[in-house]
Structures are given as C-alpha cells and as structure tokens.
Design a protein that fits this description.
The chain has one domain: Endonuclease/exonuclease/phosphatase (Deoxyribonuclease I, Chain A, 4-Layer Sandwich). A six-stranded mixed beta sheet has the order 3-4-2-1-11-10, covered by helices on one side. Strands 5-6-7-8-9 form a five-stranded mixed beta sheet, with helices on one face. It is an alpha+beta fold and 277 residues long. The longest helix has 18 residues.
Length: 277
C-alpha cells in the first residue's frame, strides 16, 4: 500500500473510533415523507450477521426500520447454484408496503445477481437486467418507476466486483447503457466496493455522469471505516445528504450498514444538466 493511502486509511480508522464514542443507542427517528422520498441501499450479506448467524427475519426488521420508499438490496440471493432468494418478500410487503421490481429468467431468486429493488408506490415502466463483465458473477438492475405525481425516476442497483479491473469495466458498462437511453433523473446506488479515488478508481469513471459524492463510511458495520456503499445522482440537488442507518440492529444484522438519502425530485426533474457542478 502506498504511504499516502496508508496514512489516509489510518486517519479514517481513528475518525471511526472517535465517532463510535458518540454513536449512543442509535435511536431511529421515522422518516417524514413530507420532506421527500427516502431511498436506501443495503448489502444484506446473504442475511448473515456479524455474529455469524443466518437470520433473514433480522434483516427484514432492519428494512422495516429504515422505512424507505425505494430500497436497493445486494446479496439478497444465495450466490451459486440456483440462486435461491433468502428473504420472505411476501412478509416484507405486508410489513413494509414494499414490492419487489419484477425480473425475468429466474425461478427461485429474488433479484438479478443478488440485486433487488423494492418500491412503495408507483408503476414500473421498464426493467433492464445487466450481467456485468468480470471474473465474478456480478450484475446491475435498471428500473424506471413512474411515481404517483407522474414524474419518472430511474434506479440503477448495482454490486461491483472485488477486483479493480473488473470494477472499471463494470462502471463503463453502466455508463454505456445509460448513453443508449433517454435522459431522465437517475440514481445509482449499491455496494460499489470502491473507496479509493484517482484515475484507476471506478468512482472516477462514474464521476463524469454522477459526480463524486462525499464518502460515508458504512463498512464494517461495527466500526465503519470504508465507504463501499454509495448513492449517486446524475443531477445536482437530486438527492439530499447521504447518511448511514446506524442502529444497534443494523450493526448486528449485516457487515454493511444501510445508507439512505432523501430525493428532491420536484426541484430538478426538468433539469437536463450533468451531475457535478
């Protein structure tokens, strides 16, 4: 590791240790929907918590606790074989009001390569399942949702690979697909497995369209140091400040903390300008 990168990582660890003292009980305040639509991203780690226990119910309770209007999940299916879904989606719909975006071509999986998008209100106008290049089985799920007020929002839920070269290829694939589609307010969220910046970073590749949002450490959940999870928008002002959902249950249920942000769609829906100002 280069000296400057090692120094930066050490400073992030120290900052996380200091922040841990102020985490308290992690009391959760329900989202006020008058403030806007809440979106979230959550790597559920195949429903295995930091205590090593497989507990889908615990994950479902965290999702209910977040109270998002749209949520992207990663690792919601078993990774190999028939890719069996690991959550009780029917229970979640009853308890949270969230419905999964439908996908095709899978029998028992909940999502596409482990990516699931769930939404509370609106109509799904388009779903595009993308197999991302690389040595690992990775994917992205693009969906366009028509909201109750008639506006449209495109969600890209992605889980990028562990190898830098793969992440670069995967980022370019996502951008190529966007270039072939009509311009619309778009949010990219998921576990991008990238915390570094610079020319070799997938974040830099995506930054021309989505900008480079401030890093919000979400991994590991017990002592967040790395900002592996991201919520990014292709228009300035489309999303509010990104926060972690840091509660006692979330710290235990997965090795990632969920991240969340409020969408300010009405303010920027008609602006065609690019992301970063």
């Amino acid at each position: 590791m280069m000296p400057e990168k090692r120094d930066k990582l050490q400073s992030q660890i120290l900052a996380s240790i200091k922040a841990r003292r102020n985490r308290g009980a992690g009391a959760h305040t329900p989202h006020d929907r008058n403030a806007g639509m809440l979106i979230a991203s959550y790597n559920v780690h195949k429903c295995v918590g930091v205590d090593g226990k497989f507990d889908p119910v615990r994950i479902s309770h965290v999702i209910r606790e977040i109270g998002a209007d749209v949520i992207a999940l990663q690792e919601a299916d078993s990774r190999f074989g028939e890719r069996r879904g690991l959550l009780d989606l029917a229970w979640m719909e009853r308890e949270t009001g969230l419905c999964p975006v439908p996908i095709s071509g899978v029998a028992k999986a909940h999502g596409w390569h482990g990516n699931v998008v769930m939404f509370r209100e609106g109509l799904v106008r388009d779903v595009h399942q993308v197999s991302l290049p690389g040595l690992e089985p990775r994917g992205a799920l693009l969906t366009e949702i028509e909201l109750s007020d008639g506006t449209s929002l495109r969600i890209i839920a992605a889980h990028l690979g562990l190898l830098n070269r793969s992440r670069q290829q995967q980022a370019r694939t996502i951008l190529e697909i966007l270039q072939s589609r009509a311009d619309t307010p778009t949010i990219l969220m998921g576990d991008l497995n990238e915390w570094r910046l610079g020319t070799r970073s997938a974040l830099n590749t995506l930054g021309g369209v989505f900008g480079l949002p401030p890093a919000v450490p979400s991994f590991p959940s017990r002592l967040p140091v790395l900002a592996l999870d991201r919520i990014m928008a292709n228009r300035p002002g489309l999303i509010d400040t990104v926060h972690t959902h840091d509660t006692p249950l979330a710290r235990l249920a997965s090795d990632h903390l969920p991240i969340k942000a409020v969408v300010k769609l009405g303010r920027v829906a008609d602006r065609p300008d690019a992301a970063a100002e």
